[in-house]
Every structure is written in structure tokens, then in C-alpha cells.
Amino acid sequence: MNGLTAFGQDPVWLVIVKAVLVFVFLVVLTLFNIWYERRLVARMQHRVGPNVNGPFGLLQSLADGVKLALKEDIIPKAADRVVFLVAPVLAVIPAFLTFAVIPFGPVVDVPFTDISTPLQLTDMPVAVLYILAIASIGIYGIVLGGWASGSTYPLLGGLRSSAQMISYEVAMGLALVGVFIYAGSMSTSEIVAAQERLWFGLILIPSFVMYVIAMVGETNRAPFDLPEAEGELVGGFHTEYSSLKFALFFLAEYINMATVSAVATTLFLGGWRAPWPLSLWEGANEGYWPFLWFLIKVIGFISLFVWLRGTLPRLRYDQFMNFGWKVLIPAGLAWIVAIAVIRMISLEGGFDRRWLLAAGAVLAVMLVLMLFLGGDDEDEVAPAEPEPFDAFAGGYPVPPLPGQTLSATSAARTGAETTSQSAEETH
């Protein structure tokens, strides 16, 4: 059985076993990712990190989960109770559902039976569109959680998150079009099969770069963690959540990290196929070995998430949105046109594929230059001299905003009040 014909043949008990295994895999991977992130960031900052609970501190995440479950569950008086309770569930369930079409390996023999089955729960002709559709539902959980809290800061965090995730989903979708064109399918298993000779991450470098940027923005991770910016939003959309409801939001974030990493592995790095030179071994892509290669690639992307968090500062929100709409999406549209032309000419036999790598490298360089050298229009205009600010115009002192200067009268009056206060404290 090859391709989509391999699916839909499993008995019901095997489908249930597969679903349970996927669920357990995601929960265990989340516990590992939390520990791994804390240990890796600690190593970057010359700290120790969790090392007490369990060997090497591996049970620290489990201890934190138990602690969260035993915490007092508080619901604000101003909250919409039903929506407040449903929102975390609406965020975490789509995170699990997206893994239904992720291929973990090829067709294998089930132990103690004579049944052969793919290491994948299911597949469909539009599996990648299914992933994008299910992932977009998770936005509702975050938006409704911020709105239902009945508080200003969670509402602002929810609005930020909705704008951010919608914007970068567009760029993510554009980055995947090139994969569809070259694979000739939207089925995840067939896309992996199309990368038997060469990974799409190598021949579609701009698509790969755009997807990696978009997946970080899509998951609200640093340096794009603006919906949770504690500097101005306290904690963002989950400020009013506690106990298990907060744990569900936390779980959804880490499963989404694993999801976008698994999608990147499947669409750009050959999925479960062994990397070169391991692929020279005949048994590298047979049996249960492919699951190991898949897991290593996913952990590599998660390491990228951790590295970005420990390295880059948070962007300003307007810079982040400008980059998504004015750089990433136009570059994605231009690259799709280039891919379509290149693919058409190459299929007709009149085009050398080495030009594809050259075009991809040039577009990647242009994307980087647009990111780092493109200045705002505001920077080209000479800033006007700020007018003096009267701090006592309303009858009581008001601190100046950034860029404002106190008038001479206000400065003198402020200095006099400071001197009199110091004298009173001395006496």
C-alpha cells in the first residue's frame, strides 16, 4: 500500500491505540520541552537550571504540573463565566488535533499481529490545509480568554494575539505554496515521499526562511511574544487565569511549538527520512528508525525556539506588524510567482535547476536586506523641536512623556518643591 491508499484500512482498536499514543507523545514531549528550555537557557546564562526533581531534574515539569493542579482556581467577578471556562479548552484541543495528519514514519508491522500500518493516524488530500484550518481555531481560545476576563490588559493581549496570528498565518500559507507546487500534492505523506531525493528546504530556501519566521510569530514566542509582554500587559491574555486553566494555555503553547516544528520537518526537511549520510544505509528509512530521525529534527527546531528566546530582545509591536505585512507577505507573493515560472520552464525541459538555488539565495539576501536596512518613513523626516511642556497646567504636577521637555517655569517650580521636601524630611 502506498500513498493515501494505505489509510482507512486499520481496525478500530488500532486507530484508538494510535490516537492514545499521539496524545501521550505530545504530553511527554511538552514535559520534556519545558525542562529542555529551562536547562538550555540556564546554560546560555551560566546558570544551573532545574536539577533536583528526578535525574537531571527531568521530573521538574511534572512537579510544576501537579503544583498548578493543586492551586486555588480563581474566577474574576467581572468575567463571563462560561466563556472564561471554555476558552482554555478551545485553545488546547486544536493543538492536539493538528498532529492527526503528521507522519511519524513509513508503513510498519504492528508487533504481535500480522497487520501493517503507517506511523500516522490519518491522511487526506488536503492535509496541510487541515493543519492551517485547525490551527486557526486556536486563535479563538486566546481572543475569548482575553475578552471574557473582564479586564483591560487581557483584552489588549487577546487583540494583539489575534492580529499577530492572523497576519503571520497569511505569510505561513504563502511559504507553503512552493511546497505544494513542487510536491504536486497537499497530502503530508505524499509530500514526504516527494522529498526522497532532495529536501524542499534546500531547493526552496526562501520558503523555508519565511516559514521559520512565520512559525515563531504564529506561536507567540520570543522575540514575537507581544501578546504576553509583561512590560506593558502584565501577563497578556492569561493574566486572570490560574490553576488548571492557566496550565491548559501553557500546554497549548508548547504543543503548538511542537506542531509547527513537526510541520516544518515534514514539509521542508524530508519528514521521517534519514539525513545524509545516514540515508546511505539501506535500513535507515525502514522499521521504527524513521521515528528517531523525525524526533531529532523536531527537537532541532525546538532548540531554535529556545535559542531565539535566550538571544533576541522583544520587538516593538508596530515593527513586528510592519515586517509581517510590508516585507514578509510581499516577498512571499513575489517568490510564488518566481517558483511558478521556474517550475513551468523546468518541466518543459528548458531550464537548469541550479538557477533555482541561485534565485533562492538572491531572494533570501534581499529579504534580509529589507529587514535590516529598510528604515521607517518617519526616520527620513527631521524631527520637529518639541514644545516646552508645562507640568502644572492642570493644577498638579504631571511627569513629561518621552521626548517632552519641561518648560523653564515648570522646571524651576519642580526644583523648588524637591528642595522643600528634602528640607522637611531633614527636620
Automatic annotation (TrEMBL):
List where in the cell it is found: Cell membrane; Membrane
Pfam families named among the record's database cross-references: NADHdh
InterPro entries registered for this protein in UniProt:
NADH_UbQ_OxRdtase_su1/FPO (IPR001694), NADH_UbQ_OxRdtase_su1_CS (IPR018086)
- EC number assigned by the record: 7.1.1.-
**Enzyme type, top EC level:** translocase
This protein's UniProt keywords: Cell membrane, Membrane, NAD, Quinone, Translocase, Transmembrane, Transmembrane helix, Ubiquinone
Q: How does it sit in the membrane?
A: Multi-pass membrane protein
Q: Which reaction does it catalyse?
A: a quinone + NADH + 5 H(+)(in) = a quinol + NAD(+) + 4 H(+)(out)
Task: Name the segments for region: Disordered.
Answer: 383-427
Name where it mostly resides: membrane
Membrane-crossing residue ranges in chain numbering = 12-36, 82-104, 124-145, 166-186, 198-217, 246-268, 288-308, 320-342, 354-373
Q: Where is the composition biased (Polar residues)?
A: 404-427
Q: Which family does it belong to?
A: Belongs to the complex I subunit 1 family.
Summarize the protein's role. NDH-1 shuttles electrons from NADH, via FMN and iron-sulfur (Fe-S) centers, to quinones in the respiratory chain. The immediate electron acceptor for the enzyme in this species is believed to be ubiquinone. Couples the redox reaction to proton translocation (for every two electrons transferred, four hydrogen ions are translocated across the cytoplasmic membrane), and thus conserves the redox energy in a proton gradient. This subunit may bind ubiquinone.
Assembly state and interactors? NDH-1 is composed of 14 different subunits. Subunits NuoA, H, J, K, L, M, N constitute the membrane sector of the complex.
Q: What is this protein called?
A: NADH-quinone oxidoreductase subunit H
Q: What is the lineage of its organism?
A: Bacteria, Bacillati, Actinomycetota, Actinomycetes, Propionibacteriales
